[in-house]
Amino acid sequence: MELSFDRMYKASIEKDATFEGVFFTAVKTTGIFCRPSCHARKPKPENIEFFPTSKACILKGYRPCKVCHPLEKLNQTPAAIQQLLQELSADPGTKYKDADLIRRGIEPHQIRRWFIKNHGITFHAYQRMFRINSAFKKIQQGESVTEAAYDAGFESLSGFGDSFKNIFGVSPKKSRTQRVIDLKRLETPLGTMYACAVEEGICLLEFTDRKMLETEFRYLSRTLNATIVQGDNPHFETLESQLKNYFEGQRKTFTVPLFTPGSVFQQSVWKALQQVSYGTTQTYKTQATTLGNPDAVRAVANANGMNKISILIPCHRIIGTNGNLTGYGGGIWRKQWLLDFEKANC
Asked: Helices 297-305 & 264-273, crossing angle to 10 degrees?
Protein backbone atom coordinates (compact mmCIF):
# COMPACT_ATOMS: atom_id res chain seq x y z
CA MET A 1 0.00 0.00 0.00
CA GLU A 2 1.78 3.17 -1.23
CA LEU A 3 1.12 6.28 0.85
CA SER A 4 2.53 9.74 0.32
CA PHE A 5 4.53 11.50 3.01
CA ASP A 6 1.75 14.08 3.36
CA ARG A 7 -0.92 11.40 3.87
CA MET A 8 1.13 9.63 6.54
CA TYR A 9 1.91 12.90 8.29
CA LYS A 10 -1.79 13.83 8.27
CA ALA A 11 -2.66 10.42 9.74
CA SER A 12 -0.07 10.84 12.51
CA ILE A 13 -1.29 14.36 13.35
CA GLU A 14 -4.87 13.02 13.56
CA LYS A 15 -3.69 10.00 15.59
CA ASP A 16 -5.58 7.83 13.13
CA ALA A 17 -5.64 4.25 14.50
CA THR A 18 -6.80 2.84 11.14
CA PHE A 19 -3.19 3.23 9.94
CA GLU A 20 -1.83 0.99 12.72
CA GLY A 21 0.53 -1.53 11.15
CA VAL A 22 0.80 0.41 7.88
CA PHE A 23 3.70 2.66 8.90
CA PHE A 24 5.72 3.88 11.87
CA THR A 25 6.69 7.49 12.58
CA ALA A 26 10.36 8.12 13.41
CA VAL A 27 11.38 11.43 14.99
CA LYS A 28 14.87 12.61 14.02
CA THR A 29 15.25 15.08 16.88
CA THR A 30 14.49 12.59 19.68
CA GLY A 31 15.59 9.31 18.10
CA ILE A 32 12.32 7.53 18.90
CA PHE A 33 9.68 5.87 16.72
CA CYS A 34 5.93 5.67 17.33
CA ARG A 35 2.67 4.19 16.18
CA PRO A 36 0.51 6.38 13.90
CA SER A 37 -1.98 6.77 16.78
CA CYS A 38 0.60 7.88 19.38
CA HIS A 39 -0.62 10.71 21.61
CA ALA A 40 2.83 12.21 22.13
CA ARG A 41 3.36 15.72 20.76
CA LYS A 42 3.98 15.68 17.00
CA PRO A 43 7.11 17.42 15.61
CA LYS A 44 7.40 19.43 12.40
CA PRO A 45 7.34 17.48 9.09
CA GLU A 46 11.04 18.12 8.43
CA ASN A 47 11.90 16.26 11.65
CA ILE A 48 9.99 13.10 10.72
CA GLU A 49 10.57 10.10 8.50
CA PHE A 50 8.31 7.10 7.99
CA PHE A 51 9.11 3.38 7.88
CA PRO A 52 6.94 0.38 6.95
CA THR A 53 8.07 -1.79 9.89
CA SER A 54 9.38 -1.43 13.43
CA LYS A 55 12.42 -3.46 12.39
CA ALA A 56 13.32 -0.84 9.80
CA CYS A 57 13.11 1.85 12.50
CA ILE A 58 15.41 -0.07 14.83
CA LEU A 59 17.94 -0.73 12.06
CA LYS A 60 18.14 3.04 11.50
CA GLY A 61 18.94 3.53 15.18
CA TYR A 62 15.54 4.64 16.51
CA ARG A 63 14.24 3.59 19.96
CA PRO A 64 10.62 2.58 20.68
CA CYS A 65 8.39 5.29 22.19
CA LYS A 66 7.54 4.85 25.88
CA VAL A 67 4.11 6.42 25.35
CA CYS A 68 2.65 4.16 22.63
CA HIS A 69 4.94 1.07 22.94
CA PRO A 70 5.18 0.30 19.19
CA LEU A 71 6.87 -3.08 19.74
CA GLU A 72 3.91 -4.52 21.63
CA LYS A 73 0.94 -6.18 19.98
CA LEU A 74 -1.89 -3.75 19.39
CA ASN A 75 -4.13 -3.47 22.49
CA GLN A 76 -2.33 -6.43 24.03
CA THR A 77 -3.40 -7.58 27.46
CA PRO A 78 -0.41 -7.15 29.83
CA ALA A 79 1.20 -10.42 30.92
CA ALA A 80 0.34 -9.88 34.61
CA ILE A 81 -3.34 -9.39 33.75
CA GLN A 82 -3.31 -12.41 31.42
CA GLN A 83 -2.06 -14.48 34.36
CA LEU A 84 -4.85 -13.20 36.61
CA LEU A 85 -7.48 -14.00 33.98
CA GLN A 86 -6.10 -17.52 33.53
CA GLU A 87 -6.30 -18.09 37.28
CA LEU A 88 -9.87 -16.79 37.39
CA SER A 89 -10.79 -19.10 34.54
CA ALA A 90 -9.33 -22.08 36.40
CA ASP A 91 -11.11 -21.14 39.64
CA PRO A 92 -13.94 -18.57 39.24
CA GLY A 93 -14.35 -18.49 43.03
CA THR A 94 -10.96 -16.80 43.44
CA LYS A 95 -11.14 -13.23 44.78
CA TYR A 96 -8.24 -10.81 44.41
CA LYS A 97 -8.18 -7.85 46.79
CA ASP A 98 -5.91 -4.84 46.43
CA ALA A 99 -3.49 -6.31 48.97
CA ASP A 100 -3.21 -9.49 46.86
CA LEU A 101 -2.39 -7.42 43.78
CA ILE A 102 0.25 -5.38 45.61
CA ARG A 103 1.95 -8.57 46.83
CA ARG A 104 2.21 -9.62 43.16
CA GLY A 105 3.80 -6.31 42.22
CA ILE A 106 0.64 -4.96 40.52
CA GLU A 107 -0.57 -1.45 41.30
CA PRO A 108 -4.36 -1.59 41.97
CA HIS A 109 -5.01 1.81 40.35
CA GLN A 110 -3.22 0.71 37.16
CA ILE A 111 -5.23 -2.48 36.79
CA ARG A 112 -8.38 -0.51 37.57
CA ARG A 113 -7.64 1.94 34.75
CA TRP A 114 -6.85 -0.90 32.33
CA PHE A 115 -10.12 -2.72 33.01
CA ILE A 116 -12.20 0.44 32.77
CA LYS A 117 -10.56 1.30 29.45
CA ASN A 118 -10.80 -2.21 27.95
CA HIS A 119 -13.91 -3.66 29.63
CA GLY A 120 -15.83 -0.62 30.84
CA ILE A 121 -15.78 -1.92 34.43
CA THR A 122 -13.28 -2.16 37.29
CA PHE A 123 -11.25 -5.31 37.96
CA HIS A 124 -13.31 -6.04 41.08
CA ALA A 125 -16.53 -5.71 39.07
CA TYR A 126 -15.04 -7.99 36.42
CA GLN A 127 -14.25 -10.64 39.04
CA ARG A 128 -17.78 -10.43 40.43
CA MET A 129 -19.30 -10.73 36.95
CA PHE A 130 -17.08 -13.70 36.12
CA ARG A 131 -18.11 -15.47 39.35
CA ILE A 132 -21.79 -14.80 38.69
CA ASN A 133 -21.50 -16.16 35.15
CA SER A 134 -19.91 -19.33 36.55
CA ALA A 135 -22.72 -19.68 39.07
CA PHE A 136 -25.33 -19.03 36.39
CA LYS A 137 -24.11 -21.98 34.36
CA LYS A 138 -24.06 -24.28 37.38
CA ILE A 139 -27.67 -23.34 38.18
CA GLN A 140 -28.68 -24.10 34.58
CA GLN A 141 -26.99 -27.49 34.91
CA GLY A 142 -29.17 -28.31 37.92
CA GLU A 143 -27.03 -27.23 40.87
CA SER A 144 -28.88 -25.50 43.69
CA VAL A 145 -28.71 -21.71 44.03
CA THR A 146 -27.05 -22.06 47.43
CA GLU A 147 -24.31 -24.39 46.17
CA ALA A 148 -23.66 -22.28 43.10
CA ALA A 149 -23.41 -19.09 45.16
CA TYR A 150 -20.92 -20.44 47.69
CA ASP A 151 -18.88 -22.28 45.02
CA ALA A 152 -18.52 -18.93 43.25
CA GLY A 153 -17.08 -17.32 46.37
CA PHE A 154 -20.13 -15.38 47.58
CA GLU A 155 -20.49 -15.19 51.34
CA SER A 156 -24.21 -14.42 51.47
CA LEU A 157 -27.19 -15.50 49.39
CA SER A 158 -28.74 -12.04 49.52
CA GLY A 159 -25.58 -10.41 48.12
CA PHE A 160 -25.40 -13.08 45.43
CA GLY A 161 -29.08 -12.62 44.54
CA ASP A 162 -28.78 -8.84 44.24
CA SER A 163 -25.64 -9.04 42.06
CA PHE A 164 -27.20 -11.78 39.93
CA LYS A 165 -30.38 -9.79 39.30
CA ASN A 166 -28.41 -6.63 38.44
CA ILE A 167 -26.66 -8.52 35.63
CA PHE A 168 -29.32 -10.88 34.31
CA GLY A 169 -32.49 -9.00 35.24
CA VAL A 170 -34.01 -12.03 36.98
CA SER A 171 -33.47 -13.80 40.29
CA PRO A 172 -31.22 -16.89 40.38
CA LYS A 173 -34.25 -19.17 40.88
CA LYS A 174 -35.91 -17.82 37.71
CA SER A 175 -32.77 -17.96 35.58
CA ARG A 176 -32.96 -21.49 34.20
CA THR A 177 -34.51 -20.23 30.95
CA GLN A 178 -32.29 -17.15 30.72
CA ARG A 179 -29.63 -17.02 28.01
CA VAL A 180 -26.08 -15.69 28.23
CA ILE A 181 -23.47 -14.79 25.62
CA ASP A 182 -19.95 -15.47 26.90
CA LEU A 183 -17.27 -12.89 26.16
CA LYS A 184 -13.47 -13.29 26.14
CA ARG A 185 -10.42 -11.31 24.98
CA LEU A 186 -7.95 -13.17 22.76
CA GLU A 187 -4.42 -12.15 21.79
CA THR A 188 -3.34 -12.50 18.13
CA PRO A 189 -0.39 -11.26 16.05
CA LEU A 190 -2.75 -8.62 14.60
CA GLY A 191 -3.95 -7.31 17.93
CA THR A 192 -6.44 -8.22 20.62
CA MET A 193 -9.82 -9.61 19.62
CA TYR A 194 -13.13 -10.12 21.38
CA ALA A 195 -14.81 -13.51 21.01
CA CYS A 196 -18.44 -14.21 21.91
CA ALA A 197 -19.99 -17.66 22.11
CA VAL A 198 -23.24 -19.38 22.96
CA GLU A 199 -24.03 -23.06 23.26
CA GLU A 200 -24.36 -23.42 19.47
CA GLY A 201 -20.96 -21.94 18.68
CA ILE A 202 -18.90 -18.79 18.17
CA CYS A 203 -21.15 -15.85 17.34
CA LEU A 204 -18.62 -13.00 17.21
CA LEU A 205 -14.90 -12.57 16.60
CA GLU A 206 -13.79 -8.98 16.11
CA PHE A 207 -10.75 -6.81 16.77
CA THR A 208 -11.21 -4.73 19.90
CA ASP A 209 -10.63 -1.47 17.98
CA ARG A 210 -13.42 -2.11 15.46
CA LYS A 211 -15.59 1.00 15.34
CA MET A 212 -18.90 -0.90 15.02
CA LEU A 213 -18.17 -3.25 17.93
CA GLU A 214 -20.69 -1.77 20.39
CA THR A 215 -23.38 -1.89 17.71
CA GLU A 216 -22.61 -5.56 17.08
CA PHE A 217 -22.78 -6.33 20.81
CA ARG A 218 -26.20 -4.66 21.05
CA TYR A 219 -27.45 -6.53 17.98
CA LEU A 220 -26.43 -9.92 19.37
CA SER A 221 -27.87 -9.17 22.79
CA ARG A 222 -31.18 -8.01 21.32
CA THR A 223 -31.45 -10.74 18.66
CA LEU A 224 -30.64 -13.59 21.03
CA ASN A 225 -32.46 -11.99 23.98
CA ALA A 226 -29.32 -12.64 26.02
CA THR A 227 -26.90 -10.87 28.33
CA ILE A 228 -23.24 -10.54 27.31
CA VAL A 229 -21.02 -11.44 30.26
CA GLN A 230 -17.31 -12.14 30.62
CA GLY A 231 -16.91 -15.87 31.10
CA ASP A 232 -15.66 -19.18 29.77
CA ASN A 233 -17.25 -21.23 27.03
CA PRO A 234 -16.19 -24.68 25.72
CA HIS A 235 -15.93 -23.25 22.18
CA PHE A 236 -13.26 -20.74 23.25
CA GLU A 237 -10.64 -23.43 23.79
CA THR A 238 -11.18 -24.82 20.29
CA LEU A 239 -11.20 -21.31 18.80
CA GLU A 240 -7.92 -20.29 20.47
CA SER A 241 -6.22 -23.51 19.40
CA GLN A 242 -7.33 -23.18 15.78
CA LEU A 243 -6.45 -19.46 15.61
CA LYS A 244 -2.99 -20.25 16.97
CA ASN A 245 -2.51 -22.88 14.26
CA TYR A 246 -3.80 -20.46 11.62
CA PHE A 247 -1.35 -17.71 12.56
CA GLU A 248 1.46 -20.26 12.58
CA GLY A 249 0.59 -21.08 8.96
CA GLN A 250 -0.55 -24.60 9.87
CA ARG A 251 -4.32 -24.28 9.39
CA LYS A 252 -6.27 -23.25 6.30
CA THR A 253 -9.84 -24.05 7.39
CA PHE A 254 -11.71 -23.87 10.69
CA THR A 255 -13.99 -26.48 12.25
CA VAL A 256 -15.03 -24.67 15.45
CA PRO A 257 -18.86 -24.41 15.39
CA LEU A 258 -20.27 -21.03 14.35
CA PHE A 259 -23.62 -19.44 15.15
CA THR A 260 -24.57 -16.61 12.80
CA PRO A 261 -28.00 -15.08 13.39
CA GLY A 262 -29.09 -13.00 10.41
CA SER A 263 -31.47 -12.85 7.44
CA VAL A 264 -31.71 -15.68 4.92
CA PHE A 265 -29.78 -13.57 2.40
CA GLN A 266 -27.04 -12.73 4.89
CA GLN A 267 -26.74 -16.38 5.82
CA SER A 268 -26.26 -17.30 2.14
CA VAL A 269 -23.56 -14.64 1.72
CA TRP A 270 -21.67 -15.75 4.83
CA LYS A 271 -21.88 -19.38 3.76
CA ALA A 272 -20.50 -18.45 0.32
CA LEU A 273 -17.65 -16.54 1.99
CA GLN A 274 -16.55 -19.73 3.73
CA GLN A 275 -16.17 -21.37 0.31
CA VAL A 276 -13.55 -18.83 -0.84
CA SER A 277 -10.32 -20.81 -0.61
CA TYR A 278 -7.37 -19.89 1.60
CA GLY A 279 -4.77 -17.86 -0.29
CA THR A 280 -7.21 -16.70 -2.97
CA THR A 281 -9.41 -13.66 -3.48
CA GLN A 282 -12.79 -13.09 -5.06
CA THR A 283 -14.60 -9.94 -6.18
CA TYR A 284 -17.99 -8.80 -4.93
CA LYS A 285 -19.25 -9.28 -8.48
CA THR A 286 -18.08 -12.91 -8.56
CA GLN A 287 -19.59 -13.48 -5.15
CA ALA A 288 -22.96 -12.13 -6.31
CA THR A 289 -22.82 -14.25 -9.47
CA THR A 290 -22.01 -17.36 -7.41
CA LEU A 291 -25.14 -16.67 -5.38
CA GLY A 292 -27.17 -16.55 -8.60
CA ASN A 293 -27.84 -12.81 -8.52
CA PRO A 294 -25.10 -10.92 -10.42
CA ASP A 295 -26.90 -7.59 -9.97
CA ALA A 296 -26.85 -7.82 -6.17
CA VAL A 297 -23.27 -6.57 -5.79
CA ARG A 298 -24.17 -3.79 -3.37
CA ALA A 299 -26.39 -6.08 -1.27
CA VAL A 300 -23.60 -8.67 -1.13
CA ALA A 301 -21.10 -6.01 -0.05
CA ASN A 302 -23.46 -4.86 2.71
CA ALA A 303 -23.92 -8.44 3.93
CA ASN A 304 -20.14 -8.90 3.98
CA GLY A 305 -19.90 -5.79 6.13
CA MET A 306 -22.42 -7.28 8.56
CA ASN A 307 -20.25 -10.36 9.11
CA LYS A 308 -19.40 -10.49 12.82
CA ILE A 309 -16.95 -13.40 12.71
CA SER A 310 -13.65 -12.17 11.28
CA ILE A 311 -11.05 -14.55 9.79
CA LEU A 312 -13.25 -17.67 10.31
CA ILE A 313 -15.75 -16.24 7.84
CA PRO A 314 -13.11 -14.74 5.55
CA CYS A 315 -14.56 -11.49 4.25
CA HIS A 316 -10.94 -10.29 4.00
CA ARG A 317 -10.67 -12.39 0.81
CA ILE A 318 -13.20 -10.23 -1.04
CA ILE A 319 -11.76 -7.36 -3.10
CA GLY A 320 -13.02 -4.74 -5.56
CA THR A 321 -13.49 -5.49 -9.24
CA ASN A 322 -10.43 -3.33 -10.04
CA GLY A 323 -8.33 -5.40 -7.62
CA ASN A 324 -8.19 -2.71 -4.94
CA LEU A 325 -8.73 -3.55 -1.30
CA THR A 326 -12.04 -2.19 -0.06
CA GLY A 327 -13.46 -1.60 3.40
CA TYR A 328 -12.62 -4.00 6.22
CA GLY A 329 -13.89 -3.59 9.77
CA GLY A 330 -10.52 -4.47 11.27
CA GLY A 331 -8.68 -1.94 9.08
CA ILE A 332 -7.32 -2.16 5.54
CA TRP A 333 -3.82 -2.87 6.88
CA ARG A 334 -5.08 -6.04 8.57
CA LYS A 335 -6.83 -7.10 5.38
CA GLN A 336 -3.58 -6.66 3.43
CA TRP A 337 -1.64 -8.52 6.14
CA LEU A 338 -4.04 -11.48 6.09
CA LEU A 339 -3.99 -11.74 2.28
CA ASP A 340 -0.19 -11.54 2.16
CA PHE A 341 0.11 -14.06 4.99
CA GLU A 342 -2.22 -16.59 3.36
CA LYS A 343 -0.55 -16.21 -0.02
CA ALA A 344 2.86 -16.85 1.55
CA ASN A 345 1.62 -19.98 3.33
CA CYS A 346 -0.33 -21.63 0.51
From this structure: 80
